[in-house]
Amino acid sequence: MKNIYQESDGVFRIELSNGFRDDGTRDRIVERVYGTPEDAIKRRDEMKALQKQMKEEGLKAENGGYTLTQTAKIYLDDTKYQKRSLTTIRGYKQLLNNWILPDLGDIKIRSITEQDLEKLYDKMRNTINPQTGKPLSETYINHCHKLITSIFNYAKKKKWLLSNPAEFVINPPKLKIKQRDYYNYEEMMEVFELLKNYDIRFRTAIFTLFNTGFRRGELGGLKWKDITKRKMPITENGVRKFQTTHIISINRELMTVSKEMQEDPDFLKKYDIIEQVTDSLVAIKPKTDKSIRKIVVVDEVYDVFMEYKKYQIDNGFNPSDDDYIFRTLELNSVWHPDYITKEWARFIKDNNLKPITVHDIRHSHATYLLSIGVPPQDVARRLGHSEPSTTLRIYTHSNLIQDQKIVSMMASNIFNNDIPDVEVQPLTLLSILVNDSTLTNDDDLFNTLEWLTHDNITRDDLDSYMNMCKQYILDSNPNLQMFNQAIESIDPELKDKLLGGIFAIFDNNHELSLNPISDITKYKDENISI
């Protein structure tokens, strides 16, 4: 086995040529592998590949292993190991460059001990934060400790280390959860009143944040095509109602990027960049599937967006569906999210309000929803949090219906809006019974089918759901079996009879007993091919 030497049972030494040292002597990379010959061969090939990669990047793998600087670079660049957002990468680099690498960067990772880490943490505890004038917090030092732990765990998986020294630190920095501040109902109402005196862009941004809990980057990443409206069913106290619903979709977020990051040839692919927006802004995919979501908003949010759109049109900019919503005052470019933070801070100061951050607006929204009785799991889903559990992993129409209840609570508690009643139309029932979607209004048909099935129905699967609901209606209402015989013949004259028969049922006050399907599996198995 080339470059591999067996030292003892289950212990192999790998030696790779690494050029020459400054004194002219030959340099070698030496590493031990504990396991089988196959493990040693696999590790040798990995080392050769990494050696080639580092040579191409102008780095050299020194004898005895990589330095912490080299290891950290490989760790951050390895997107196959772990997918990280641009925000996370930027935060990691700040911790590394400001605190970790100046003290430990030139030391080979195999030589770093838990005592070295303890000395670093003690030094940080005695360092004054120039922004606050106070010592660095335990939480901040804990972030460094967690990053160091992750880097060494990565090295262990690569078999560059046998153990992680961070795991043996006697007094690791403790994470202290800071209680975030927020605005209560009265304070939010004061903000809404003050916003009336501000420009439409700022008013739209802040009003939306308070009513959605969006992250700043998510708000900046909104395009006009992300705002839609449709009729959706809702049942309250046993009464089925339809209301026009406004939905905002989160599909991207704006992020600031440095020139250094953009110089990476794999920049777009590595960080899931959707598009370059400006020289310093990119649109990226949300970090996880849980961050991609649709939420229902109150009418007032939709209205303020439409007012902002009218402002843009009146001032010479005709936005398309693919345009970003928030733009500079001159309307010639995308509004940088950092300016939302600056304008909010100025708004707080000018109106002598309790100081909270833009992110605390998100916390205010969550606190308000919990205060009016919205279940925590629905609040978490609405905010795009990663927990709780599996119900938050897929954003389905059933989530939107639950969101409808959230908005109903909000509309009732804040804006005192009424929800109109809508009755099921006879032609809608006829359309289902004869499998002909052209006999009724699309909105009525889709609303009825979605109310019955609790599913989000597209035109592609419309026929299957019509068959499913037809069977359910006939099973639940034996008095309609006679019409089923006519349906099967699909004769134009019989259609007229069916129409007259259904009208006769309603005219004679024959009640159709319809409730949402409790066990939909039976009907899906028979009508939908997976």
TrEMBL record:
One Pfam family it belongs to: Phage_integrase
PROSITE patterns: CB, TYR_RECOMBINASE
GO biological process: DNA integration; DNA recombination
Keyword DNA-binding included in the entry's annotation: yes
InterPro entries referenced in this protein's UniProt entry, alphabetically: CB, DNA_brk_join_enz, Integrase-like_cat_sf, Integrase_catalytic, Integrase_recombinase_N, Integrase_SAM-like_N, Tyrosine_recombinase_XerCD
Domain Core-binding (CB) stretches: 66-156
Ranges where the Tyr recombinase domain occurs: 178-408
Keyword entries, A-Z: DNA integration, DNA recombination, DNA-binding
GO molecular function, one term: DNA binding
Family recorded in the similarity comment: Belongs to the 'phage' integrase family.
Designated name of the protein: Integrase family protein
Source organism: human gut metagenome
